[in-house]
Amino acid sequence: MKSASFFTELQRLLQKYPKVPSTIINSENSDYGNKIFHSKNMMFCFDDANCNDGIYVYDSYMSPSCHDCDYCVETELCYECVDAYKCYNSNYLENCGSTRDSSYSYNCINCHDVFGCVNLQNKSFCIFNRQLTEQEYRQKIELYKKWPSEKVLAEVENLKQRYPLTQTNEAHNQNSPYGNYVYFSKNCYMSFDAGHNEDSAYLYDSFYNKTCYDTTYAAQNNQVSYEIVDSGTLFNCNYAVFSNNCHDSSYIFNCQNVKDCIGCVALVNKQYCILNRQLTKEEYEKVKQSLFEELRQQPTGWNSLTFTS
Predict the structure, then answer these.
(1) Alpha-carbon distance values, 306 to 8, 56, 216, 253, 275 (Å)
(2) Where does the pLDDT of residue 303 fall: very low under 50, low under 70, confident under 90, or very high at 90 and above?
(3) 8 A C-beta contact, residue 224 and residue 213
(4) Cβ contact 13:276 at 8 Å
(5) Which of 163, 164, 176, 278 has the fewest Cβ atoms surrounding its Cβ within 10 A?
(6) Helix, strand, coil percentages for the chain (3-state, nearest 5)
């Protein structure tokens, strides 16, 4: 099989099968959104997993009862928070971790009962970085809560000017200095919004990957895979889009539980298929070898494919 005819046929398959209008898997009462996994009662939410009772939540994980939040992980009862990790009962937090009962704060770690604070760690009962007693805090906080949000945020921005901004946001990493918002990773390069990855590079919004490269929205234990988009639980796969639980396959789109497949679209529980045609193991190995030899010499065919309907 020639590579040119392979990509022509693959393009025909992509146009033949309908595109999935939205991806909502193992979720209840979450129809108004997209890419929602293992969640319940989510409205106008996108790219969320293991969340419930949320509205306008984007790219968050294990964050119940949150509203208007982005990039929140293990955060509960929060409103208007961005990049919050293990936060509780708070609002207007940015890049905070293990913080509870707080408001309008930036880059605060392991704090509680702080208001309008910046760059604090292990603190409590502070207002605009001023330390108060608990009694003073309880008395004054009711007055500050009546301020218009614009006034509070302006004061916080003034506080930010007094502190240097770090080049990147990261924590608990080993040998993973290049990227931003990288956490609990080891031997990773040029990763962004990524966590719990190992021996990987060029990752975006990807988690729990090992020895993977060029991935976007890839999670749930991908291993030894390359050029992955919106896919999970892959092993030794390349050029996969909207596919899950697949092994030893390449150029697959919207496939589930397939193994040893090449150039396939919308297949489920299949093995030894090329361009959606069922082959024997011997036929598959023969065609695979000749096709891959030619693809190694002309690797640009992937770029000619279009995925829009």
Answers:
(1) 11, 30, 17, 12, 16
(2) low
(3) no
(4) yes
(5) 164
(6) 20, 45, 35
Host domain of residue 79: 24-160
pLDDT beyond 90 at 2:
no
Q: Are residues 182 and 278 in the same domain?
A: yes
Same domain, 105 and 203: no
C-alpha 69/C-alpha 81 separation (Å) is 5
3-state secondary structure of 54: strand
7 is a domain residue: no
Q: Which ranges constitute the DSSP H helices of the chain?
A: 3-16, 134-144, 149-160, 281-297
Please report whether residue 71 resides in a domain: yes
Task: Report which DSSP code applies to 132.
Answer: -
In this prediction the pTM is 0.83
Does some domain include residue 274?
yes
| pLDDT tens digits for range 251-274 | 999 999 999 999 999 999 999 999
Q: How far is the C-alpha of 15 from the C-alpha of 56, rounded, in Å? A: 32
**Tell me, what's the pLDDT at 45?**
96
Q: What is the mean pLDDT of residues 146-163?
A: 95
